[in-house]
């Protein structure tokens, strides 16, 4: 019974502010990971967009080779 109370005291936030801090921290982690994925995909796309027109023609294999590393990371 005492372990159960200690677990809840130290593992779960007690105040609204602590809950908000945990939510914001998790959100920041997700957003920063998304930003890194977008940046990486942009760099890969730029390699294929040799004329810098904002468009590129890719085969299915090229497309999958470009995005798979970002999906499994």
TrEMBL record:
Name recorded for this polypeptide: Uncharacterized protein
Species per Swiss-Prot/TrEMBL record? Dioscorea zingiberensis
Q: Which InterPro entries match?
A: CML48/49/50 (IPR044590)
Q: Give the superkingdom in one word.
A: Eukaryota
């Amino acid at each position: 019974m005492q372990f159960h109370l200690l677990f809840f005291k130290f593992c779960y936030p007690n105040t609204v502010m602590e809950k908000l801090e945990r939510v914001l921290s998790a959100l920041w982690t997700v957003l920063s990971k998304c930003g890194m994925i977008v940046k990486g995909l942009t760099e890969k796309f730029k390699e294929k967009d040799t004329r810098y027109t904002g468009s590129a023609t890719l085969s299915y294999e090229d497309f999958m080779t470009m995005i798979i590393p970002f999906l499994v990371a």
